[in-house]
Each structure stands twice: as C-alpha cells, then as structure tokens.
Amino acid sequence: MHAKDLAIESRFISAPDGLKLHARAYGSPLMPGTPVLCLPGLARTAEDFDVIARALAGGAAGRPRRVVALDYRGRGLSDRDNWKNYDLRVENADILACMDALGLAHAIFLGTSRGGLHTMITAATRPAAIKAAILNDIGPVVEAQGLARIRGYVGKLPAPHSWDDAKDLARRVMGAQFTSLSEDEWLAYAKLTFQEKDGKFIPRYDVKLMNQLEALDLEAPLPTAWPQFEGLANVPTLSLRGENSDLLSEATVAEMAQRHPRFQAHTVAGQGHAPLLLDAATIGVIANFIARSEG
Q1: Domains of the chain, CATH where assigned
Q2: What is the overall mean pLDDT for the chain?
Q3: 2 band by pLDDT with thresholds 50, 70 and 90
C-alpha cells in the first residue's frame, strides 16, 4: 500500500471516568494483519509512532495492518487531569477501554518505556489481548539512575524560542543518551517533544507529570515486575535496548532471555532511553519480528 493511500484518523474515546482520550488510527480494521497497539513513554505521545505506524500499516511486516497509537490522559490530544490520576492503574484501565471502543479484541503490543510496563500489566489484566509484545527499552527491573535522570527534566525544561532552540535543547538534555543522531533526527526529536501553540513552544504533556516522579523514593529499592513479565511467556516477545540506556541494563535483558522461552533481544546502536523508532534498521527488526510472530 502506498503511504498516500493510507487512511489516518484521530479518534476520541471516553475513559471509564468520562475523561476524553485520544488515539491515532492508521488503516482499516479490515486489513489482514494482526493489529498493532502502540503505547508511548511517560511524557511521550502517539506522535512518537507516526513513522513506524505508517510503515507497519503499509505492509512492512508482510501484510497491511491496522495500527493504533494512544495518548495517555494528560498527554498529546487527550484531556489533562489531576496529576494523581497519571497512575499506571488508571492508565491501564484507559488502555483497555480504548481497545474495547476501537474493536481491538487483541493486538501486537509495541510499548516504549512506560508503554512496556503497561504491556506487562496487560499480560495480567487481559492476557488474551496480547498476541506478541515489543518492549522498547524497558524490563521488569528499572534502574534508579535512569529514573533520576528523567526526573531531572520532565516538566522542568525551559521554553524554547524557536525550532532551532528546541533542537539544541533536546541535544543538550539527551546528547549523552543519543550519540549518533543526525541534525534532521534531532529536529524530529524536538518536534516530538514540543508543540508550537499561539506563538509559544510548550511540551506535548502536562508538566504536572513531574509530581508523579517527585513522589518516588529513589533511595529505596524499586519494585520489580518479574511476575508481570512472565505473563508474556506464551507470546513472542522482542526486547529493544538502547546501547546507551541507563534505564534497562544488559543484565536485566539477559535474565529476561533466561526466563522467557520465546524471547528475542536487539540492541539499537548509538541510542539510549528510549530508542526513537525512526531509523529504517530498527523498523526492519520490528517488522521482521512481527512477520515471524504471525508465521
């Protein structure tokens, strides 16, 4: 399917508590491939998946398929809320409500960071919904140093004055994580992080998200999610790890491989937390995994 022929639409769905949620849908429910559900990171949005969603919907994994990318409450085009509701349990109920509203009885889950946590949680809350899982730079063990770094900038970035300024800001904040991005990729990253509205540059998320991070005690041992990860044991699972990641360790990926009988791991060179899924090589790895999981 040619990209220009791909139907793309915004859908707005009521959360269980009535809050308006946004999803971006690529393609038709009639497409033959297993649909893909894209779940973003903590302060990220459905826009992060636009490049890979177009590729997968267009047949990059062997067959055209519907792809749906969600905005959690407080992010993207979803309504803002009390920051205390920016909670994994509330968000997971939102995800299940969106699946029901969009007719997604099951899907291949592509979860970046927090989206991977939601994938593992869904393995417990609705296991039949997951046909395969792609965990982008996340695992059952989250490294405290990575969370501390993220806590240092979410909701705290200065407002850029131009797209060049936004690009330079992204590079200053994330340069140690992403060591091989081109100028165009840095600009793309900036445009996925900020939006221009009424002549001002603002984040694509509610800055009160920072309150959730501030509430974490990073001096205490963080809880792990091994039981939730093991809920994925019956479905093919791909782990993507950024080579420079400080949130997902190589040791955790090795243990994931030991515990999961249908596990595949791939390292994204020159990227950190979390790989942007913009480059052809990484999209190819994901497409090949999806094709094999269906084969």
Answers
A1: 3-154+223-294 (3.40.50.1820), 156-204 (no CATH)
A2: 95
A3: low
